[in-house]
Structures are given as structure tokens and as C-alpha cells.
């Protein structure tokens, strides 16, 4: 399988009046085309910092980020970013929210509008096209945020704990829903989460970061039998607890 994203020797430190705090140290990994890659680690280990470096919001002090084998800077427009909150604009309708990125890029033509309407229908939001965000449930809002992201046709999706603001039951349902959509679309995805069960339920591979400064402790491949093909069904698989215990032990073991 072709490598879509490659990170080599990435380092980053925060600088304040009090001094320097090293956040990430010598981070190296690759993500295959169409892979669902998950990053876990203790609080404060630099997970969100790493995602900010990948999408170009910050520049690394050293190391490189390659997309399709080329330096990432020119092609980071091909990345879609989903945050912890949906950031839908309350004064716009759902349709005008999901079309906002295309509108900003002057790409909202008749063909794009038809594609958006098709996605609304496919993901169960067609009847809310003219609704305001406040009229939707948290799960519906996250689906709208995903459509807004997918509308720009990114090659790579960066997901920064996109389900963490939801209540537990809704979180399970929306995680199952959205990750299945991403797999169906064959998108390459990088998810950050602190929820180990969530990580196992969606991942092809899981990268474990150490405590600060974040370093790669391990990368664990995850595989389930074909009948456990969705996040909710994976949680009932016999091997699920073994993966959970492995991750838990890795995170508890201090270097």
C-alpha cells in the first residue's frame, strides 16, 4: 500500500519568558493511503501539537513532513481538519454552513451544490438543509461538520478528538457513523483521542506517545475478523480486551 503521509524526526518546543518546554522529540511514522491511523498518549504529551504541525498551523523546529513523497507545505490544502467542536455558524443554515469552505474558495458552483445535497441525503440530514445549527442534536451537528470537511475533497482527514464534546451514548453512535463514512470514502485519516476503546474500535494502527516530551513508544497494528467491520461491533470482538490491555500497559509503563 502506498505511503500517503510520512513524518521524519519531528521536533517541537514551546518558548516562553520562563524558558523552553520540549513538546515533541524525534517523532517518525508513516500513514498508508486509505489507512485509519490513531494517536494516543497521556495528557500533555503533545498530541494536539502534532496535529497542528501536520496541518501547517505551526512549523516544526526540525524534521520533515512528506505528503505523497513531497514536502508537505505546498499541498497541505489537501488536508481536512475536524476539531473537538463543530464550529457551525448559528446564523447560517445547515446548507450554508456545509458549503462555507467551497464558498470561501469560490468553488460553490451548481455541480458542487448537487454534491452537497447528495451528501446531506446520504448522511441523513436532507430534511435539515434549511435548519439552523441550534435545531440539530450534537451528533447531527458533527455529521454536518464532517460534510463541510469532505466537501473540500481533502486527501487526508485530521481529527482532533471530534467526539469528545458529546455525551457517551451519542459519542458511540457518532463515532460509529463518522468512521464508517470515512472508510466508505476510502479517506486517509489521522485521529487523536484519549479514549483507548475508541482508538481500538476505529484504527488500522495505533501510535502510542510517551509523556512529555512526546516520543513514539510503539505502533500497534489492529486487525479484526470481517464480521467486526464497524466500531460498535469491534467492541464485542474477543480480541478487543487484549488490545485494550496492551495499550493500557504501554501507557502505564514509564520509561
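-> sequence recovered:
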Amino acid at each position: 500500500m502506498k505511503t500517503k503521509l510520512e513524518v521524519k524526526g519531528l521536533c517541537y518546543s514551546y518558548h516562553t519568558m520562563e524558558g523552553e518546554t520540549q513538546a515533541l522529540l524525534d517523532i517518525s511514522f508513516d500513514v498508508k493511503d486509505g489507512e485509519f491511523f490513531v494517536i494516543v498518549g497521556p495528557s500533555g504529551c503533545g498530541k494536539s501539537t502534532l496535529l497542528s504541525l501536520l496541518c501547517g498551523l505551526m512549523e516544526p523546529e526540525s524534521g520533515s513532513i512528506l505528503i505523497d513523497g513531497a514536502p508537505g507545505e505546498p499541498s497541505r490544502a489537501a488536508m481536512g481538519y475536524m476539531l473537538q467542536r463543530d464550529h457551525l455558524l448559528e446564523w447560517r443554515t445547515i446548507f450554508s454552513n456545509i458549503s462555507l469552505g467551497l464558498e470561501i474558495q469560490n468553488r460553490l458552483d451548481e455541480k458542487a451544490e448537487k454534491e452537497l445535497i447528495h451528501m446531506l441525503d446520504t448522511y441523513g440530514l436532507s430534511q435539515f438543509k434549511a435548519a439552523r445549527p441550534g435545531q440539530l442534536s450534537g451528533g447531527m451537528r458533527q455529521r454536518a461538520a464532517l460534510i463541510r470537511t469532505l466537501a473540500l475533497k481533502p486527501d487526508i482527514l485530521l481529527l482532533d478528538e471530534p467526539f469528545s464534546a458529546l455525551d457517551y451514548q451519542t459519542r458511540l453512535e457518532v463515532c460509529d457513523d463518522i468512521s464508517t463514512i470515512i472508510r466508505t470514502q476510502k479517506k486517509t485519516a489521522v485521529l487523536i483521542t484519549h479514549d483507548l476503546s475508541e482508538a481500538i474500535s476505529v484504527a488500522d494502527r495505533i501510535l502510542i506517545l510517551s509523556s512529555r516530551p512526546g516520543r513514539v513508544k510503539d505502533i500497534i497494528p489492529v486487525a479484526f475478523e470481517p464480521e467486526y467491520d464497524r466500531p460498535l461491533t469491534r467492541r464485542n470482538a474477543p480480541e478487543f480486551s487484549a488490545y485494550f490491555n496492551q495499550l493500557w500497559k504501554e501507557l502505564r509503563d514509564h520509561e
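The two ends are 33 Å apart (CA to CA).
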